[in-house]
Amino acid sequence: MTILTHIAAQPFGDEKASHSYAPLLLPLRSRRLVIRDFVSGDLGALHAYAERREVTRYLLWGPNTVEQSRATLAEFIAQQEVAPRVRYDLALALPGGKAIGGISLHLDDLRLGNAEIGYVLHSDYWGGGFASEAVQMVATAAFAQWPLNRLWARCMESNKASRRVLERLGMRHEGTLLRAERLDGAWHNVMMYAVLADEWRTRG
Ligand SMILES: CC(C)(COP(=O)(O)OP(=O)(O)OC[C@H]1O[C@@H](n2cnc3c(N)ncnc32)[C@H](O)[C@@H]1OP(=O)(O)O)[C@@H](O)C(=O)NCCC(=O)NCCS
Q1: Are 141 and 25 in contact (CB under 8 A)?
Q2: Which H or E run contains 115?
């Protein structure tokens, strides 16, 4: 759900902790996906999914106007220059370069080594395992490159696809916050998931 909010997070923690978080090495590549920083030329691709009601149904933003997508992209690009970088809002792209979604990794507490992961995909690509693959790639890189302790995610209880993404990757359902969000006038329960560094390394 992180990829939905554009409110700047305040990284807690001391100076010392931030030195251990070198910039994540990008791009990440698999046979069918490239995870890279957004560039200004991605506006059309970003807006193509951000304007769709079915895509943003369980998100805290959208559907976007083109101006909102432009502002979002500008914010994602601005975060690339922040040091230490604590917000990675990355493009999920096909090997040919076209962005088909986004994946976010926000270091929300450097001292405790906590980061939140979130993702969104253009609906034309749903059901192909792209989100699961992307989360796997980003989580693997984050745990390998950083002294991360805990990776967490949250999703609306009614968002079955997102729950499956997290569960099939071995993230633990740690609890459900009742009526913790309100969308289109209706209350939603929010499910909290997490995986610890040692759990990630020893999972099957
Ligand atoms: C959530 C989302 C990213 C999943 O992307 P995806 O690439 O289709 O997911 P995957 O193909 O990796 O599928 C993951 C699992 O979810 C299941 N799934 C996919 N769509 C589903 C649906 N509508 N209902 C129930 N399960 C669904 C898949 O079958 C798969 O489970 P399985 O391994 O048991 O078969 C995508 O639906 C999306 O972008 N939704 C809108 C944005 C959003 O909600 N983001 C998450 C915010 S918390």
Answers
A1: yes
A2: strand 114-121
Structural domains of the chain ordered from first start: 27-202 (3.40.630.30)
- Confidence class of residue 6 from pLDDT cuts 50, 70 and 90? very low
Q: How far apart are CA 33 and CA 14, in angstroms?
A: 35
**SS3 call for 56:** helix
Mutate to test the pocket of ligand 1, among 56, 119, 135, 164 (most ligand atoms within 8 A of CB): 164
- Is 128 near ligand 1, meaning CB less than 6 Å away? yes
> What is the pTM assigned to this prediction?
0.93
Distance, CA of 173 to CA of 165 (rounded, Å): 12
